[in-house]
Amino acid sequence: MITAVGLALAAYIAVLAAGDVYLILVHVLAANRRLARERAELAQLSREPDRQPLICVQLPVHNEAAMVARAIDAACSLDWPRDRLEIQVLDDASTDETPRIAAERIAAWAAKGVRIVLHSRVDRSDYKAGLLREGLRLTTANYVAVFDVDYWPDPGVIRDLMGILLADSRTAFVQARLDYRNRDHNWLTRAQAVELDTLIAYEHAARNWSGIPMTFSGTCAVWRREAIEDAGGWSGRSLTEDLDLSLRALARGWGSRFLATVSVAGELPESFAVLSAQRLRWGAGTAQQLRSWPWALHRQLAWHQSLAFFLLSQFHATVRVLLVALLGCVAWSAVSGSPGAGLLVASFCGVLAFIVLAKTIGALLGMRIVGRRLTLRAAVDIGLMWCLQVSLIPIACKAAWESLLPGQREFRRTPKKG
């Protein structure tokens, strides 16, 4: 029985990992053409005054004293008419100097004619989702940009995002590519940068190009208010409020766009303790989504897009836990002297090799998108990424367990150094 269970697990993991084969083919066959098309599309955006509606830029903060002033400066410097730009600094019950620092910077920018307000609340109900929901209630803007406090957009980013969003009335949001100012700070940030470039520059780009739904990354995007409200608004039922809203909007027939050539730089965790807390929240929130999977979304897609979306989503949510379970079957089979032990070992090694090969190719393709060349340092960084993946396995298992527990988990924001 153990052998049968192990073989079934190995087969299922291999099927989930097959989604990467699809993404690799998309990159190889379409990347150059798609990137050229995106650049041409951005170059031809209309700059007419009537195409510049009111935008609300939301900056959610909680104990961000080291970063809030710089984030406010970046938001207030966005290249958009001042009478059509509204900035909300949304303070989620900070207990440090964040409100005072924010108030000082807000006063300075307000004196220059910028429409900017500080909204503070005393309780953290629904955490970031509740904060964004309150901010939306306080504005009449039909377009909402969300930037986390550590992501500082260049002035022209808002024009690129809005130009693409306005071109299609059924696009819910337009997402910029996330980049990282401190990617070379230490071995941990180098490993994270490759890992996240693989997720965003490789996977999100290929999804976008092939019509597979691409979800909101939680920051650096502009949303259409109509899409947020049609999807039911921000919800705190999951620790990953960005993924939750994305899936509900996509299930309602809204589309999304990812701009691989437009980037906004942020900050990566520089210690493993901070990274562990972040990944525990991400992992638990992703696993929570499995309980409310939007099956209606699959009716919006062609069969191959639907299949690829399902495989990729399930892979990210479950693969580490499934690999641990498969390894347990291998160990049990070996200790008990099962005649199928050799077959299970071969299956485990084969599945693991398949995943490592596919994701390594994905990492190389992601590096190409962000402009990194394949050098010895890049190869070392890919090795560091795999060391990081192994070290995060216990965190993933704990996250999966916590997602099964009743009640709402605490939302712990990732501390930023500035």
Short descriptors:
single chain, 418 residues, alpha/beta, Spore Coat Polysaccharide Biosynthesis Protein SpsA, Chain A, 2 domains, seven-stranded mixed β-sheet, globular
Radius of gyration: 22 Å
**CATH fold node name of the largest domain:** Spore Coat Polysaccharide Biosynthesis Protein SpsA, Chain A
Helix and strand string, N-terminal first? HHEHEHEHEHEHEHHEHHHHH
Total count of strands: 7
Adjacency order of strands in the biggest sheet: 3-2-1-4-6-5-7
Helix content: 55-70%
Percent strand equals 5-15%
Overall tally of structural domains: 2
Low-confidence stretches: none
CATH top level class name of the largest domain: Alpha Beta
- Main structural class: alpha/beta
Q: How many separate helices?
A: 14
* Overall 3D shape: globular
Quote the distance from N terminus to C terminus. 54 Å
CATH architecture of the largest domain: Alpha-Beta Complex
Specify the biggest β-sheet: 7 strands, mixed
Give the full name of the CATH homologous superfamily of the largest domain.
Answer: Spore Coat Polysaccharide Biosynthesis Protein SpsA, Chain A
Overall mean pLDDT stands at 90
Describe this structure as you would to a colleague.
This protein is an alpha/beta fold. It folds into two domains: 2-27 and 301-404; 45-272, Spore Coat Polysaccharide Biosynthesis Protein SpsA, Chain A. The protein has helices at residues 2-17, 19-43, 68-76, 98-110, 127-137, 157-166, 187-210, 225-230, 241-251, 272-289, 303-335, 341-370, 376-391, 393-404, and strands at residues 55-61, 85-92, 115-121, 143-146, 171-180, 221-224, 255-266. A seven-stranded mixed sheet has the order 3-2-1-4-6-5-7, with helices on both faces. The termini are far apart.
